What does this fold into?
Amino acid sequence: MAAKSDGAAVSVEDDNTPRSLSEPGNPAAPSRCTAAGGKPYTLLDCCWVLCSLLVFLSDGGTDLWLAAVYYLRGEYWWFGLTLVFVVVPSTVVQVLSFRWFVYDYSELSGGEGSASGGGGCAAAAGAAGAAGADATAGDGTLSTKDSDQRGGNAPAVNAANVTPVYTSSGPAAAAGRVGSPRRCCTISMWVFQTVLHVLPLGQGWRYIHTLYLGIQSVWHSNAPRRHFKWRLMFESADITMLRLLEAFLKSAPQLVLQLSIMIHQNGVLPPQGLSASASLVSMAWVIASYQKVLRDSRDDKLPMSYKAVIAQMLWHFFTIGARTVAFALFASVFQLYFGIFIVSHWCVMTFWIIQGETDFCMSKWEEIIYNMVVGIIYIFCWFNVKEGPSRLRMALYYSVTLAENVALTAAWYTYRGPQTSDSSALIVVCLVACSFALGTFFMLVYYCWLHPDGPVLGSQWGGCVDEGVVGTGGMVGVIDACLTPSQGSQTDMVITSPPRTLPRTKDKDTGEPVPGERDRDKDSCLPVFQVRPSPSSSPALLHRTSSTSRAQEGPVIRIDLPRKRYPAWDAHFIDRRLRKTILLLETTSAISPRIQYRSSLMGSKEVLEYETTV
It folds into this structure.
């Protein structure tokens, strides 16, 4: 996906300031984001990936087993439908996965194979330029053409006109030492990946590779650990995106089909029950995994604990279960009207999503395709795709879902066949109602006690969050902490100074603040205003802070794009050329690179002052 530019000036400040950089003690530190400095890989992470692999294999395996049972029983119509819902979605996902592998591995082998002298750094500079980024570090600089003459109000340089320049030979020599993979190993890897994706087991291999990267990030130290950490985050993002797509293209329709067959035949075969259960667990598991990996990838959001992940999985398990049972009941009686209902619901949901102006992809048409896929997800469950408070949108969605479930179940109960007794029908209706009620209960548990940003009632207040307590112990002790808004971390500046209408308490003689009041101000956890001081106000402080940060933080990849708001992925997780740049800079630099996005609040004068000073 190509990085897009809206013609704004190239900026040097992140659009979403992390809390650690917006504290009063770091007024001039530029905000950056990184994945290499996240929490270490733990045994729980390893167990979660192993369980995800088991869910993936059981979902596909039970579907193929059921298709074989239908074929042996002579039920060729059910065999064909079951096999179609396995082969077609899996082919789509495997093609996408193999396309990503081709891009990543061909770029990796080609860039490393041609690395001699400064070749590796030239490749890194080329990748950075192609993505509209430039990287700077200590004694080496990756820049774009006319970057020195570019002013604060100058338009962004087109990616096609970028001329990469490397101004230091130190990292280039390090890149030259990276040996190209042997030809036989390259051919073997291509054959191996081709066979895996034809089977199809591409996602299974990615899960195994994720385990390998996680273990390597624990065993190694310093630079190798950072490199494996970056690769682990990228691989985790890839596998969750692929599994989310596969779950709602394959598992969701497969679940509705098998439930409809059970109701039509008025009986349940063991393979049918196992296939339906595996599909339902797969959908709930994938959504919870996706949300966890997305939060772990962003430094402006608190990570999700495994308690919260399990609560979210149970929430989606029961709500999707009630939804699919209602679909199956209605489809067993009204096949044609069920198709019309599904298409109509998808059109309405897709229009609603497009009208919300989401910002996930790098181009307009990719965004439309993404919204159409999310419309399929909205047929079955809630999926947040827009920044800001989601309570009203979620309440509206679940109100519509509840009304549809009641209408579909009531229609089936009224027009069901004579083979279903009244007592059995009442049990099924109670099952749908209880499942939806349980899903709503776990949703409230998640938002009221286990949400990473704090309880739903306390999220209206601004303040500071003990990230260590929230990240490791769930919500224990959060009542005593000041909570940030659930979407408040998206703001560019945290305000810590009292408003002009509230005068400070000062000594009558000197006009200075009373010492006791000053201490109470420092201890207060309710910030009101905080503005970043201009360079002219404290040039020595800015120079010292910027020099220290540059010396310690290493290369900086500047991206001429505003940072995407949560719940969207950052551009360096979507654009694979930016990934290439990050991994190459990890190889050629002794210090982990930092990602720096353009700020939407910085004017042209601020950009010029910042670039001139730093």
Notes: DSSP finds 19 helices and five strands in the chain. The chain has a mean pLDDT of 73.
